[in-house]
Amino acid sequence: xxNRRVHIVTGMCCDVEGQESIYPQAGGLSxxxxxxxxxxxxxxxxxxxxxxxxxxANHVLLTNAERIPxxxxxxxxxxxxxxxxxxxxxPFTYQPxxxxxxxxxxxxxxxxxxxxLKNNSGDNDSCLSLDSDCVWLNSAARMVSAIEKHGLxxxxxxxxxxxxxxxxxxxxxxKIYQDLGYKVEEPPKYYGAELIAGKGKxxxxxxxxxxxxxxxxxxxxxEGKSKFNTEEQMLSYIYNKEGYAAGTGNPYLKRIWTSxxxxxxxxxxxxxxxxxxxxxxxxxIKRLFAQITNPKSTFWxxxxxxxxxxxxGSYLGVPKRTPLKSCLDMFDNRMSGLQKRLSNxxxxxxx
Length: 351
Fold this sequence. Notes:
The protein is of the alpha/beta class and 351 residues long. The chain has two domains: 6-320, Spore Coat Polysaccharide Biosynthesis Protein SpsA, Chain A (Alpha-Beta Complex); 322-351. It is built from ten helices and nine strands. A six-stranded mixed beta sheet has the order 3-2-1-4-7-6, with helices on both faces. It has a three-stranded mixed beta sheet with strand order 5-9-8. Helix 1 (33-53) crosses helix 8, helix 3 packs antiparallel against helix 6 and helix 6 (200-222) crosses helix 7 (231-242). The chain starts with 5 loop residues before the first strand and ends with a helix. 42% of the residues are buried. Mean pLDDT is 94; it is low at 345-349.
């Protein structure tokens, strides 16, 4: 790995009462403690898995939370301190207007993260910001090499041209590109925002571009014009406009769906360096968290590399769903359904 600094970060942006948004993979009221604990748990797994695979990286958690909550009997703040994860309080400044878009409001916090990295990294440092529901399987060395080669690394989702993505297809985005003076002959590439990675100097440039498209979209919203709805759509515009090579992060990271209805894992995923697992927040990631809380568990002793990937995969359903995982998922679903029904009954009785 390069002797320059490597920053591995994620964010924990907590919605407040009255400013909730929709996050389909988690469900529930986004300002509630129950909802937010799901993401705190993810953050613990994210950093624990990176610490195993990237022990010399500068690990930073950025959050707008006033305090770090315990997760049951687990002292979250103490864990981060003992494992060398810096916790930085960072206000959420890229807040869209209330009616800007109905979902994913707090994901614009990634723009605050980019600005933090702009101000706290050297030009030749490598900055890697991944979503908290990502799990590291291997060293970030290959990603760092890609960053040094390309300047900025992105994840191409290879979405069909007419598939709606947060209410805009790539073809519809093409029309907005043209409105903004950037003419493209084909529907533009669409990139996932679970990976934002680049050299310090490219992150600085990215932050400036973010400010530009952010203001443009706010203005278009105020004027009732079509605009980009999410941070992914805005970042995709920047990556396309600036001419960054497409899919330079794809050999190292994959968004993997692991439910029986939508399953995209493959044997080759064991050779990746990180998995993004949106559907595992309340399932495999929760169970992996339970292992992390035990300092004597296999999580902390299994050799990194293939054995670590196979170990994590057994909890996360990669490269296949085991019978045990299927049974545990079914049990969790039934318990969740029971809790919702009990909550509804309590609500009726309290009226």
